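Before going further, learn to read the protein records used in this course. A complete example follows; check for yourself that the lines match position by position.
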Amino acid sequence: MRIALHGKQFIAESTPYIQEIINILSNHGVEILFSPSFGKIISSSSIKVTEPQTFSKLRTETPIDFMFSIGGDGTLLETVTHVGSLGTPILGINTGRLGFLATTAKSDIVKALDSLFQNNFSLDKRTLLRLETKQKIFDDLNFALNEITVVKNDTSSMIKVICHINDKLLNTYWADGLMISTPTGSTGYSLSCGGPVVLPSSQNFLITPINPHNLNVTPMVVSDASIIKIEVGSRETNFLTSLDSRSATADPSVKMKVLKESFTANLIKMKDYSFLDTLRNKLNWGFDIRN
C-alpha cells in the first residue's frame, strides 16, 4: 500500500500527532510519500521517519492508494490540487482550527486509521468547479473545490461584473466582486458574504455577490448543470480571479466560463460522520450564548 501525505508548517503541539500517523503507517508496512513542500518541513523537524521520499507529481502509472491532508481546510484544498483527476481518496486530518473539510480530529487518528485499514469507510464525492478561459491563466489547475471568485484588485472603487447563465443574462453586478461556489464552498467565503448553507449533495452552485452596491441583489442558487459566463466591465484595468486559495491577475479581455468539473474530489467519510453534526458544532447552532 502506498499513501501520500501533504501538509503545511505546523506548530509544536501537532508534532506528536504527525509522528503517530507516520508510526501507524510504518507499522502496517505502508510506503509513505510526502509532497515536496511537506517533505522539506518533515526533514527539518524533530519527526522521525526513515528516508522520507517525496513525489513530484502523482501519476496513474504509480498509483497512490490514499492521500492524507494534515492540517486545516486550506491544506485540504491544496491536497485536492495534488490529486486532480486521479480520484485518489483523501483523508483530512484536522490539526488546524475549523475543520469543515478536514473532519478527522487529532484525538481520532488511531480510530480513523483502523477504519481505513479495515475498509470501513465511504467516499463523499464532492463537486468541483472548472474555469475555462482562452488565456489559461491557471494552466491545468483550473478547478476549485470551494469557489471561483472575481474581485476588484487594489482599488477602492467597485467593479462591473456581467453574468450570464446558459447564455441568458442574469445580472450586471456593481460590487467588490462575484463568487461562484459549490455546495462544499457554501460554508466558506460565500457564507461570510451572506450566502446560504446547502448540503454537499445538493447538485447546485451558488452565485454570491461580494458587497454589492444595490442592496436588493441577493445570492442565487442555480443547478450545477448550468454554464455560467462572467465578464468584467471594459473600464476596469485589471481584476483578481481566484480558485480556492490560488489567485491571478487578469484584464477585461479575459472572458470566463464556469461549469461543473468532469471529476470529483473523493473525501473519505467515516461511518460516524454527519455533515449536520459538523454544522451544529462548527457554527455553534443551537448553543445558548447568553450565559
Notes: The first helix runs from residue 15 to 27. The chain has six helices and 20 strands.
